[in-house]
Amino acid sequence: MPGRPTTPLISAIAATTLLGLGHAQAAETGTRTFRDWIAGCDNLRGCTALSLPAEAASDVGFLKLERSAGPASAASLSLRLRGEQLKAPLTVQLLLDGAPFPAAGKSLPARREGEDSATLLLSDADTEALIAAARKATRLTAKLAGKTYDISLAGSVAAMLWVDEQQGRLGGTSALIRKGPATTVPAAPALPVIAARATAGFPAPDAKATKAMAVALRKHLKQRDPDLCDDADSDSDNVWSLDASTKLVGLLCSRGAYNATTGFWSVTGTDVAKAKKVAFPQPGANSDNLLINASFDPATGQVGFFGKARGIGDCGSAGNYAWTGSGFVLTALSEMPECRGVDPEDWPTLYRSDVKLAK
């Protein structure tokens, strides 16, 4: 469908990573698109549903619904608006299929998020009213600072129904859509706690040693498999110390217009013939040692990645892996498979954890 990336990015990094992260996960993994809405839940069954801006929109506006799992969690609904030179004071006028919303027609105050963005957090009453109206309404119109934003409600009911299903709310008093008499809601799974190990205390190889190890590893890999990592730009290669005897080697394996793929190997001592691919866990598929737009931070022991499905970075997947002293484990993951101008901080979160730096 239009707007969906055609690269294998999502399936290679995000979706396959989630296919079996253990008992603490939502009933379904990844994101689901419902007409003009998208929804996703994380391993704690915390869910996000977003309206998708029009593909050609220059001024981007969308609704974002967030809800944590558990019986005491309420839904939070906000309106995100972005346009050039938004000037304070910022007040938003809303229309629901052309009629004032809320019914009194009052303007609502928005919070400035930057020079070109603002957020309107709807009250509990207005959230409930808008969710109820979405069953029949087709479009929410927002007017802010002389700009008009059209937000489609097509698919919103299906997206919220799916969220209710993932959180075990269907037929219950806390359901967003299909309410019923049930009062029992499953508790949220425990937040995984991951002990990351910083590696900054181990001396990093100097430039000459880094170059020598990277060149030697490339030569060795070329003998084993000429196509394994065929980018010859060794100036982008890096070597870090993971401990007193183990090196993490990152080789640039391919480069595109806005994505660079790095392959990671571990080397004990200086013997590149015994180099091992670093396993970045992707349950449900073979672990891979390739990450897109990746960087390693010795101070935190974490590798971050940001795979763009197009150049402006409004779709793709992003996350982190932490070094635990014996391997790398996933600590965070978010994904947006639809290229509609949504910034990464608003993408549905699919995996989260509490990372603590081991002493």
Walkthrough of the structure:
With 359 residues, the protein is mainly β. The chain folds into 2 domains: 25-166, Immunoglobulin-like (Sandwich), CATH 2.60.40; 194-357, no CATH class. Helices cover 13% and strands 35% of the residues. It has helices spanning 9-15, 124-133, 156-166, 207-224; strands at 31-34, 37-41, 47-51, 60-67, 76-82, 91-96, 99-101, 108-109, 111-114, 117-121, 139-144, 147-152, 193-196, 238-241, 246-255, 260-268, 276-277, 290-292, 295-297, 302-308, 316-323, 328-336, 349-351, 354-357. The strands form 5 sheets. The chain has a 7-stranded antiparallel sheet with strand order 1-2-3-4-5-10-9, covered by helices on one side. Strand 14 (238-241) and strand 15 (246-255) form a beta hairpin. The N and C termini lie far apart (49 Å). Residues 1-26 have low confidence and may be disordered.
Strand content: 35-45%
**What is the succession of H and E elements?**
HEEEEEEEEEEHEEHEHEEEEEEEEEEE
Sequence stretches where pLDDT stays below 50 over 5 or more residues: 1-26
Structural class computed from helices and strand pairing: mainly beta
Mean pLDDT: 88
Largest sheet: 7 strands, antiparallel
How many DSSP-defined strands? Answer: 24
Write down the overall geometry. elongated
Percentage of residues in helical conformation: 10-25%
Helix count from the secondary structure assignment: 4
Strand order of the largest sheet: 1-2-3-4-5-10-9
> Rounded to an integer, what's the Rg over CA atoms?
23 Å
- Termini separation comes to 49 Å
How many domains? The number is 2
